[in-house]
Amino acid sequence: MKSNFIERKKILLNDSQSKMLISGWSEKILQNTIVENISYNSDGLKVKGYLAYPKDTSKKYPCLIWNRGGYGDNGAIDIFNARGMFGNIANEGYVVFASHYRGNFGSEGLDELGGEDVNDVLNLVPLADELEFADKNIWGMEGWSRGGMMTYLSLSKSKVNFKAVMIVGGVSNLHCSEKDSPYIKLVSEKIFPGLPVEKFSGECEKRSVTSFINKLPKDTHYLLLHGTADESVAPMDTINLAGEFQKENLHYRLVMFEEGDHFLRKHRKEVSELRKMWFKKYL
User: Fold this and answer.
1) pLDDT tens figures, 59-111
2) Which of 181, 186, 250, 275 could form a disulfide with 245 if both were Cys (CB 3.0 to 4.6 A apart)?
3) Is the Cβ–Cβ distance between 34 and 52 less than 8 Å?
4) Distant-in-sequence, close-in-space partners of 189: CB < 8 Å, separation ≥ 6
5) What kind and span of H or E run contains 53?
6) What is the CATH number of the domain that holds 104?
7) 54 is in which domain, residue-wise?
């Protein structure tokens, strides 16, 4: 069987970086986990990303897809932060898959901000088949900012049962009718330059979960986190989305962080504890 992995290479930090990681996260991450740079096949394209897992590969661990925010280099996860962030999650007993998405970080193709690049998320799933320590029957997903949009889109298209998801400051409504929307500007300038207004509106709506909420899986448990001082994604968007979840009888919990910014920098420990609790409970 042909491998869906194209390249795999362990991330090795120098002494200075290791000390910084221990200070920012913990020594256990270096001792107990492995994080790799990977390239994998996605629709015939060579797409780059990360793979993280516990060093003890004698057991099977639930699988978790982590969806980054941003576009291009903005929001990209560098090697050092990947070693810390994904090593931290792997240390809790998960196999973590993360994509840079096509067109980013040296990946082939064009990032369509919620178009065909959604397949780069879905095409992480078959990679688990090649890892003996990955329990391919248990899946969760986490998305930050634009990664929230990618999570909703992936859930609406995937046949995999994602039992639990966590979304932080997630983009749920692109506000397609508002000219000052940063996402409208990005999509119109980078993805569909010159596209007629009527067609662009349709492409925009496709990316807003508010227009396809009925396609989200009913048995998934959703943890929605947002900071009340978020200036990148409107806090009310997540509050309104929770209202729609209520109407659809979806399983969800909404947590708003007082004065929390887009990255919830002052609430890092709380976010980590909520993640730990949520995935332990439902995966």
Assistant:
1) 999 999 999 999 888 889 999 999 999 999 999 999 999 999 999 999 999 99
2) 250
3) yes
4) none
5) strand 45-54
6) 3.40.50.1820
7) 5-173+208-282
